[in-house]
Structure formats: structure tokens, C-alpha cells
Amino acid sequence: MDYISTRGSAPALNFEGVTLAGLASDGGLYVPREWPRFSIDEIAAMKGLPYAELATRVMMPFVKGSLTEDQLARLCADAYGSFSHDAVTPLTQFNEQHWLLELFHGPTLAFKDVALQLLGRLFEEFLSRRDDHLTIVGATSGDTGSAAIDAVAGRERIDVFMLHPDGRVSDVQRRQMTTVLAPNVHNIAIDGSFDDAQAMVKRMFGDTAMTGRFRISAVNSINWARLMAQVVYYFAAALQLGAPYRKVAFSVPTGNFGDVFAGYVAAQMGLPVEKLIVATNVNDILHRALSNGDYSAGTVTATDAPSMDIQVSSNFERLLFLEGSRDGLALADQMSGFEKTRAMRLTNAQREGSAALFTSARADRSDMQNAMHWAAEKCGEIIDPHTSIGLHAARAAGIDSSIPVVTLATAHPAKFPDAVESATGQRPHLPARVGDLFEREERYDRLPGDYDAIAQYVAERATPSA
Ligand SMILES: *Cc1c(COP(=O)(O)O)cnc(C)c1O
């Protein structure tokens, strides 16, 4: 499979190339040149497969030429063996119409593990072929940092430098990063905000003194391999609810548009999807874009669902490209306009194309609390604040009652105990596998919010590229 950039001027790459590159050299994102499509019979034959085997079946068309089926199967078995539930992403029921897809049984209790556990293993496979070394640099305000650290801890060819704003992540979130003591894991608390940390990471990607010596890579959801791994659980859930002979709708708590974009990919591959409901909190740029074409960034409001507190959704560009007649140069113009003014209108083609599959809803603080309360009182399910936004949107979407609606549960409630307790009166407990988090030894360094200090720190500890 070949991959092309959404901005039309970077070279096409194969799967190995896009996995190691992350962002395309023209600033765009990689998408497959065409969608592989399964027949009804092929989808029917996937029913009942163990998760790792289903994952191999669904992802194989995307990795052809870079991995054999045996290699992919081995990586999937290993990655999904790290989950604490045999079904990996089990489906539970709220009521006659509403279902919950639990994506939080990985090592760090959020759905990001599903993709990052595989991505860490893909990196290792491709780096060992090239006898090369990777330096991952990231900034995190929450779940990505811990999921990335867990996925690469102890891997010889990778160093990870993760910046978090000192004192501004929750204790659970910080400890999930700083108690990983492997020598290739470097946690840095910086004196500043998340935006300061993010700005320094961006600067490093453009610093040729650094990129000339080290193969620097990101692990955020611009990486195609992450989206690809997330396609699998849409198949897993729909197959349990009657696919390919019955349509299913999905409601997805959305920030960077990665998770819900994977649902769009599943539909392009032939999975019968009725609707994808994009659920946002009050940071609602995507809801405005999908409901009236207004894609304009404001300022971020902090909410109880911090992983969805975003201004700009990087993966939305992929949808704009695909629904905008795949015209990369036109999109490059549209995006450079947006980067200057922080605002743009979707074209008619982009709006009409998106409306075929997507709908959206926005949840404020009381919508979130009501949804958590309803799930606890009426269904005996404790859900986290992010998931509650999805559930609110699922119930508000007006989907025909004959169609099952699956809300994606993106985090374990114990990651956000205070918000859950205030809505439900019940305090969720950490699962046994991380129950000793608060007894573990922590290790991290504190640095000033100063680019040169960070760059020097990384340069002293990273391994140069081959
Ligand atoms: C990252 C995250 C989201 C948002 O997912 P996107 O792919 O960025 O849209 C939602 N909920 C939780 C708990 C997350 O960690």
C-alpha cells in the first residue's frame, strides 16, 4: 500500500515509511492512496475471531509490502496480550439501544493504549531492519504521555522524552509516567503551561541542529499507524451487533479527530456504519464545523474532560482532503489560510461529503454530569467524563431505535475520580494492575521553560541516528 500527503507535494511512501515519518515533509498528513474494501462475505467470516486475529485481518491490506501476515500477526498477538481483558475491547450494554465499547483495558487505562502498544512494536521492527535509533519527543497534558511511555519503555532503539507542565497534570497521570524507571524513558516537568511545552516540541522538529543528528519522531495521532490500529475495534463491536447484515452507529468522544476518523476508515472498508456521532465538550470547533461549516479556533476552556480540551483538531485535515476531491494543492492553500487567521469555511463538497456519515453534538458541564448520573443510576455503569460526553451525544442524536448505538469508552473512570464522584456519589478505584501506583518510586527532572535547556538535555541523552 502506498500513502500520499493531504497537501499534495510530499513523496508517496510505503507503510514502513509513513510509520517512521509521522508528518509528511510538506506539512500534510499521510492517507492511503485508495481504500481496501472487504466484501460482505469477507466481513461475515471475521465474526468470532479473537481480537489479535481480527486485527491482523483488518490491518493486513494497509501494511502489505512492509510486513508479512505472519509478522503482523506476531506483533498483534504481543501488543494485545498486554491488555487485562481477554476480549481486549469488550462490549457492554446500557439498555435496548445503547452499548458501551470499553477501550480502557490497556496498561495505562485509556484507549490510546490500543494503538500505541502496537506502534511501539512497529517502531522496533522497522528500526531493527535499518539498524537505526529513534528519539521520540512529546508534550502531554494527560493520556498520550503515559500510553507512549508504556509502549516504548525498555526498547533499545528508542528514547522517549516526555514534557509535562509541572504541577498541572493529575497525580494519577503524572505517576503513570514518572514511575516508569526504564533507562530510555526521560520525564521532564517544565516550568510553564502545556502550550509552552508543546511549542518547544514543535521548535525541536524544526531545529536542524537536532534533526540533523537524531531521528526525531512524534507519537501523536497524526501518525497513520495509530489510526489504522483503531479501525479494528469498530469491526469488533459491529460484528457482535450483527454486521455485516445490520448497521451500527458510533458515538465518539472527540478531541484531535483521530478516534472517530478510524470509524470513517472502517466505513470506507465496507463496514455498514449508520452514523458517526462526533461528541465534543464546550471546546466545540468540530461541532461548529460539521453543523454549519465554521472551522474557527477560539481559546481553550479547561473542562473535566481534559483530553478533549483542544482548539485545532489535527486529523480533521484528513477528512477535508478526502471529501474535498483529494485535491492536495487546494487543501494546502486552505490550510495555510487557516494557519494565518485561525479560521476558515468548509467548502460545499467538504460539508456535503462529511454530512453523509457524520453528525455532531456538544456537551456542557451539566450534560456530562447528567450522563454520568444516568449511566450509574439507570444502568449500573460508572463511566468517565470523556465517555459521558459520548453518551450524552449518543442519546441526543435521534438515531432510529432499530439501530444499535455504541458509545466509545475512552478512559477508565478511576483516571478521573473527583469528577466521577461529584456526578455519581461513587468514587471509582484503580484496577489491581495499577493499584500500587501511589507506592511506586518516581523519577523525573525539572527544567525551566527554556528551549535551549530542553534541547541540551535531549542532545546529551539521545542516541544519534545511523
Ligand atoms: C485522546 C482522548 C480523547 C480524544 O481522542 P481523539 O482521537 O484525539 O479525538 C478522548 N478521550 C480520552 C480519554 C482521550 O485520552
UniProtKB/TrEMBL annotation:
Its EC number is 4.2.3.1. Residues 97-329 form the Tryptophan synthase beta chain-like PALP domain. It is an enzyme of class 4 (lyase). Belongs to the threonine synthase family. Keywords: Amino-acid biosynthesis, Lyase, Pyridoxal phosphate, Threonine biosynthesis. It catalyses: O-phospho-L-homoserine + H2O = L-threonine + phosphate. This is Threonine synthase. SUPFAM superfamilies: Tryptophan synthase beta subunit-like PLP-dependent enzymes. InterPro entries: Ser/Thr_deHydtase_PyrdxlP-BS, Thr_synth_N, Thr_synth_N_sf, Thr_synthase-like, Threonine_Synthase, TrpB-like_PALP, TrpB-like_PALP_sf. One of its GO terms (molecular function) is threonine synthase activity. Its cofactor is pyridoxal 5'-phosphate. PANTHER family: THREONINE SYNTHASE FAMILY MEMBER (PTHR42690), THREONINE SYNTHASE-LIKE 2 (PTHR42690:SF1). Residues 3-80 form the Threonine synthase N-terminal domain. GO terms for biological process: threonine biosynthetic process.
